[in-house]
Design a protein that fits this description.
heterodimer; A: 80 residues; mainly alpha; Non-ribosomal Peptide Synthetase Peptidyl Carrier Protein, Chain A; B: 355 residues; alpha/beta; Peroxisomal Thiolase, Chain A, domain 1; 8 helices; globular
Amino acid sequence: MNINDFILKVEAEFEDLEPGSLTPETILKEAFTWDSVNALIFLAHVNVEYDVELSANELIEANTIQDLYNLVEVKVINKG
Amino acid sequence: MATFSVPDIKISGIAACVPEDIYFNENYDWIEEKERKTLIKTIGVSQKRHARQGTTTADLCYDAGIELIRLLEWNPTDIELIIFVSQSRDYIIPATAGLLQHKMGMTHQTIAFDIGLGCSGYVYGLSVIGSMMSTGKIKKALLFTGDISTLNTSFRDKSAFPLFGDAGTATAIELDSNAKPMVFNLQTDGSGYDAIIIPDGGIRNFADKDTSFEYHKISDGIYRNGFNIALDGIKVFNFSLREVKKNINNLLADSGLTLDQIDFIVLHQANKLMNETIRKQLKQPEEKVPLSLEEYGNTSSASIPLTMVTQLGSELEKSKKTLLLSGFGVGLSWGSVVLEIDHIQCPSILIHPNS
């Protein structure tokens, strides 16, 4: 997986996000309503796309798109 | 335990009943329009049924049961066993199944008891009633499932209020030596007991006139008291995405089946995002995994039979189908069953009038 591909897929997942609006440095709370519903949509997305599970705490600690990507990447790698 | 099969029983009919009042989520003005729209789209619930105070789950189940035995031409005195699966009983004590036995005019020979499960309750209930019938050679039985969840839900809780609807169902089951065995896979993880919980009013947190009724702010848009349903959405979500697929795959492997041999997968109607994610995990097309959430919301242990009635009713009445049913949630408790449905009675959904 790579971050550009990750961003494209996240942009497609959320209606509020314009294609091309996200960068790795984008701060989640500034980009869109980073609330519990959108957190669930993100959880569902990474579950289907990468077969990984994130906890509520992990999501709360993530600040940027890069943080989210790192979270998912580590889990994908650990899964082997 | 491993999967197990129950021989010689078949479903003969299913009926579902909902209260008359409809609640439209577009009117849920506790939250602002933009958030409301996202929420409705994500959970997939546009409207649901709300019981008025005074109507119980057993009242809805009674209507479903009476209509079902009328269509099947069963006499109440022929029914030897009833089980009421619910978390919204008429009284703290006694069990509600006895009230239904009496009200329906069944004899004193009737075996009647309650099972206190929610989302997984239909599958668990089928396994218990089927096993008793199979070993006890009981010819006719009724399984009642359902909940009135809206009375216990805080209006000021955006994580729960828009989700739940009320419903009661009845399923008629018969002994039949030609029936294909039903195969079950049932599981539990009680460490997640607080993922969906009404904390007060039981013996652990006995009802207290000061603390139980007091509303607390849990987070933005979420206020509730000790008698309200508390949902930990992310916990339930992660649990369901982790366990349901595994449970289904193990069941299929043990029954020597593949998903291609299943005509319909009827999932507990948790919320649209969850159900659609599970469908994608299983790589199944939309038309094979019906949803009733849009019109009825999450109806707890009624959701599987209610979905069968509203989405598959005519199909189940006129043909033979292999179904996989899967319930998952409160407990945490989850389970699936593979069974065959062959020309059953499946009347249109019934409406319980406001008195």
